[in-house]
TrEMBL record:
Belongs to the transglycosylase Slt family. This is Transglycosylase SLT domain-containing protein. It comes from Paraburkholderia megapolitana. CDD domains: LT-like. InterPro entries: Lysozyme-like_dom_sf, Transglycosylase_SLT_dom_1. Residues 93-194 form the Transglycosylase SLT domain. PANTHER family: MEMBRANE-BOUND LYTIC MUREIN TRANSGLYCOSYLASE C, SOLUBLE LYTIC MUREIN TRANSGLYCOSYLASE-RELATED.
Amino acid sequence: MHGINALNGMAGARLRLASVLKAAFVTIVFLLAGFSPATNAQSIPAPLVASDSAADAAATPIAPELDDIVSALCAQFRVTRADSIKIAHAVLTEANRYGMSPVLLLAVMAVESGFNRHAVSVAGARGLMQILPAAHPQLLARAGDLSDPATNVHLGSAILRGYLDDADGDLGAALHRYSGGGRGYARRVDQRMQQFNAHFQSVANANPNANPAAATKPFLYTAWHPDDSAGQ
């Protein structure tokens, strides 16, 4: 009996040892498979890198000089030289402050007021960028004269920049909101931008001393075409 028990004990010990070794082997294989550098490299997708070529092509409007803006306002919109200088200063200052194209700001003003700084709409919107006091009471709480170009362009640019940020850079959506939902508004702004760009490009081409970098200064909003904003 004792011999049989001994044999049975030895056999059981060998079986237990084999089970332990097998479990250890399985664990090692699992760990190696789970933490293999090659396995990790294949399981983690490479980061997506967007091509800058399309964005750069869409974000290269003309960046006009002050004198270019003044001459355009005087000749095309019959704005006095004194007012044109004030408007040009305000446009370049706020475009730089808020990271927007000066051509965009000019286009909005052309559509909104035709550069009449004393313009008042039926709804009560005022000045170059037709700011509606009732829609922005907090922003305008300490505002001065809305017919003053510096004040009006500063506030209008702040409002438009906020709409751009809220729309994740979608210019069509931002313009649609800026106009209060006016149909065709974004398209009219786009047309004005094209006209200003064509004018400033012709000026730059005619000036051999023009800074080539000024004609390709990028601005901050996504590529947009009015065809993508139907009804805006």
